[in-house]
Amino acid sequence: MSESLLFVDIDTQHDFIDADGRLSVPGAVELVDALGALTAHAVANGIPILSSADAHLPDDPEFAQFPSHCLAGTAGQCKIAVTLTEAPVVVTAAGVGLPQEQPAQTILEKVTFSMFSNPAVGHYLERFTPDRAVVYGVATDYCVSRAVEGLIERGIPVIVVADAIAGVTAEGSRSALERFEASGVTFATTEQIVTGHLPA
Ligand SMILES: [Zn+2]
């Protein structure tokens, strides 16, 4: 039996990815082709996608540190077109909306950096435990880091797609990548993932 993968797509939303987004991550717009290729590969091969998405309220504590972004109900909060599939299932930040059957794409809303702040994520990973998680998106030094750390803590091996991530600062990204490596994360390119040449 082939190994079960879960694609973990972090915060690929208009405000973070696009050049005119409210908190555009440097270099993120250049990831769009890779993000689209990963999504298409998942759809074509029946690989489930767990997509985290900020869904902020105007007075969220995070806005003390960062400019306002991804406000619930705004265009900026929407996922970019290439990381959206036909019928995504949304689980609210309160953890409401996770079905019994694993959706092809689950959009897991959140109001802090970590997708593990959503109370449904633990149930999701217990119910639909993958052999490995393939993580990509933004930002390497914030939300991607928290996702990788949380997956590793739960004993799920992680592949980070090195050319499908971008960070807020070069320094922060570098130290995140060092931490990933130290915690046993393996790295792959988008090309390796979409051609099925996964690292050992
Ligand atoms: Zn945020």
Structure notes:
The chain is of the alpha/beta class and 200 residues long. The protein has helices spanning 14-17, 32-45, 120-127, 140-153, 170-182, 190-194; strands at residues 5-10, 49-54, 89-91, 105-110, 132-138, 158-166, 186-188. Helix 4 runs parallel beside helix 5 (170-182). Strands 3-4-2-1-5-6-7 form a 7-stranded parallel beta sheet, with helices on both faces. 29% of the residues lie in helices and 20% in strands. The protein has a single domain, classed as Rossmann fold. The structure holds zinc ion (ZN). Zinc ion (ZN) binds at residues 54, 56, 62, 69-70.
List keywords for this structure.
alpha/beta; globular; seven-stranded parallel β-sheet; 7 strands; 200 residues; binds zinc ion; Rossmann fold
Secondary structure tally, helices? 6
Category from helices, strands and their pairing: alpha/beta
CATH level 3 topology: Rossmann fold
What is the CATH superfamily label?
Isochorismatase-like
Q: How is the secondary structure organized here?
A:
Blueprint: E1 5-10, H1 14-17, H2 32-45, E2 49-54, E3 89-91, E4 105-110, H3 120-127, E5 132-138, H4 140-153, E6 158-166, H5 170-182, E7 186-188, H6 190-194
Parallel strand pairs: 1-2, 1-5, 2-4, 3-4, 5-6, 6-7
Helix pairs in contact: 4-5
Bound molecules: zinc ion.
